[in-house]
Amino acid sequence: MEAIMNKLIIIVLLFSIQPLFAQEETTAGEPVLIEANPAKAQQDLQLAYKKEYAFLTSQVNNITQRLVAYRTNSALEKKQIESQITALENQLLNAEATATQLEDDIFTIQRNSESAADNQGLIESTIIQAKATMSEFGLVDFEEDQSDLNKIKTLVNLANQTIKQQASITQQKGQFFLTDGTSVQGEILKIGHIASYGNSPQGSGVLAPAGENQFKVWQDSDPQAATAIFTGKNKGLLPIFLYESSIKAIEEKQQKTIVSVIESGGLIAWIIAALGVFALLLIVLRVFFLNRASASTEHMLAAVVTKLEQKDVDGAIKLAHKKPSSSARVLLSALRNIDRDRDHIEDIVSESILHESGQLNRFGSLIIVIATVSPLLGLLGTVTGMISTFDIITEFGTGDPKLLSSGISIALVTTEVGLAVAIPALLFGNILSGWAERIKDDMEKAALRAINVYKKVFA
Q1: 259-317 pLDDT tens trace
Q2: What count of Cα atoms within 13 Å lies in the side-chain half-sphere of residue 389?
Q3: Is residue 453 within 8 Å of residue 308, measured between CB atoms?
Q4: Between the CA of residue 365 and those of 57, 289, 443, what are the distances in Å?
Q5: Number of independent structural domains in the chain
């Protein structure tokens, strides 16, 4: 405010000084300077200053009043706006609370709706399952407009009637199947709906469901005990086969044999089994050859040594010549050259042992090869079976385990058969190889023994 007043005073002074330099024109048109009066100018200046001061003072008062009024109005408006903001905030909080409550109500409604749908689905599935179960005992038909409660009541009534009917023992004529699949007519004794017995001139026994309300004689049943039940002469324990329903057939457990196990493994299992039989044949032949090669080595050596001690070399040669074993042939080669120097004799003995090694090692490598190849073939069968299983899963899914059994059988049985062939083949192969090495050592010892005795006697 003070700055504005200073500016106004400067403007007034400028307007007050201007008349001092006013010009007057003469008649001839030339300007004449008017003489200035300082005292009058001072008075005029003071008067103008007073007027301007009064005007400015009124303006300041007016502005001050307007500023006060503005501040008052601003404060009132601020209070009104704050009250409006507070009211809007309260409305917003109320709206949020209402929205939250509505969301909770919607969630509760959805949950109740889902629960109702689940309960409805449970009721429908229960009715369907109960209808399927009770259809075995009687026809169950419902009207289209019948409510679920009435359907359940109908099923319960039918269940009560069925329980009453099945809580008794009945005997009637009927048809059943023997263990070999033959259909016969005879008497069927039913104990409720959980067990049955069949009796006919062709055969008797405990009955098991064969599907579609048909029955068959169970393979482990006792015909005499079943016949005694019909004649009333049963005095021992009552044989019984309990079942839940006669609609679905009960499969008898198949007895596993070596052939059935191999058959479940497919072509690869048969190949492994053939290799196993071949390996067994080779092992038997190898045992025969090794036993023949080492036959009576100790007795023959003792007889040869006796002949050499008696200085009868020809007799020792004839004695060794009579024996057909590999040990006899090696000893014979040493006796025929026994008069030569020792190094030469030992070379002849080594050459003879190498010549006999071919027969001693016969089939040994082939047995080890079969022992090595068998588990690899089993692994091949495992991979083939797993591929077959995944192909079935891709085409039919995993709903029926019987569809997967063939691939799983190939996968597991081939590995089992491969190991069953490889383990004995490897074991006997190594045992027979060790036996062959011991025979070679015995040959060398027998030849050296004969040489030492000869050198000692004829030294």
Answers
A1: 777 887 788 889 999 999 999 999 999 888 888 777 667 777 777 777 777 777 777 77
A2: 18
A3: yes
A4: 133, 15, 22
A5: 3
